[in-house]
Amino acid sequence: MTMDVYALIKEKGEDFKLKLLAGKGGVSRHIRAPNINRPGLALTGFLEYFPYERIQVIGIIEHTYLSHLNNDLQIKILTKIFSDEKSVACILTRNLEPTDAMLKVFSDLDVPLLKTTLSSSSLAEDLSYYLDNKLAPSIKIHGVMANVYGLGILIVGKSAIGKSECALELIKRGHKFIADDIVNIKKRSSGQFLTGSGLEITKHLIEVRGIGIIDVKELFGVGNILSDSKIELVIKLEEWDPLKKYDRVGLDDYYTEYLGVNIPEITIPVAPGRNLAVLVETASLNQRLKNKGHFTAKALDFTLRKELNNI
Asked: Choosing from 142, 158, 209, 274, which is the catalytic residue?
């Protein structure tokens, strides 16, 4: 996933207090890395392992150092850093004024030079979070997303199996609703976990057959909604098949894979009289125990084997 500098300015220019100073012709440069970089050491001439592909942030320390150099030396250093084809943009923080050398180099190279009133630390944190979310690989799947007892639950299954009704019952029981029908799954930059969220156009909405579209935020309040959550368990709902053998002990662990990340998965057969919300709650609590290293079925199996060996 990529986005260009123009899109960043258009979407977050007001939030990040961004103002374009020079290099307007380079706003089409693509941002591919979610992390930002402060080029302190590079200003001294050391460029080994320098991350050209990141947005560079010049704060008061870097700005003060450059200001003590003569104009020609500034031009030489900045040109060496930003002439690389992978260069994206540079942001001056704390409303610092660019030097004449900065304006010349960034204009000549067509690399966007921006400034913000934010501090370097505030900009780095907010911009990295925004880019991590924006550039993250993503897929969309049919399902329901909720946060149950602090655990992100993705509920999948055939249409009309009862996913939305289950989510509605979970909301009434005090849990957090995230998405219905379409879940947007993103792989975070660390690559170790996934997050799930709803589409912007259907945010906070659930479709319930026989009732129609309901607004969870308006009906149940803001305390029952979340914008996104880490996906820690996938629950697959399927129609009860009397000929199928379902797991009754829980010794084996099953996983499903999205975007190269394996997520624990359990299958719950749906039949009249089964309270899906209670089963999802129980599955969530049981997974939390597993995350802490407590496996009830394995502990029982160990105890039984030990008793049998003593007979």
From this structure: 142
CATH 1.20.1260.10 fits 3-134, yes or no: no
Residues of the chain with CATH 3.40.1390.20: 3-134
CATH of 136-300, one of 3.40.50.720, 1.10.10.10, 3.40.50.300, 3.30.565.10: 3.40.50.300
Measure the CA–CA gap between 56 and 123, rounded to whole angstroms: 11
Active site residue 248: yes
DSSP H helical ranges for the chain:
5-12, 60-67, 71-82, 100-109, 120-135, 163-172, 216-220, 276-291, 296-309
Q: How far apart are CA 80 and CA 74, in angstroms?
A: 10
pLDDT digit string, tens, across residues 5-21: 999 999 999 999 999 99
User: Catalytic: 142?
Assistant: yes
What pLDDT digit, counting tens, does each position of 237-291 carry? 999 888 888 777 778 889 999 999 999 999 999 988 889 999 999 999 999 999 9
SS3 at position 70? coil
Q: Is 163 a catalytic residue?
A: yes
74, 82 contact by CB (below 8 A): no
> Which residues, in sequence order, are bridge partners of residue 66?
none
CA distance 54 to 56: 6
Q: Which of 108, 181, 288, 301 is catalytic?
A: 181
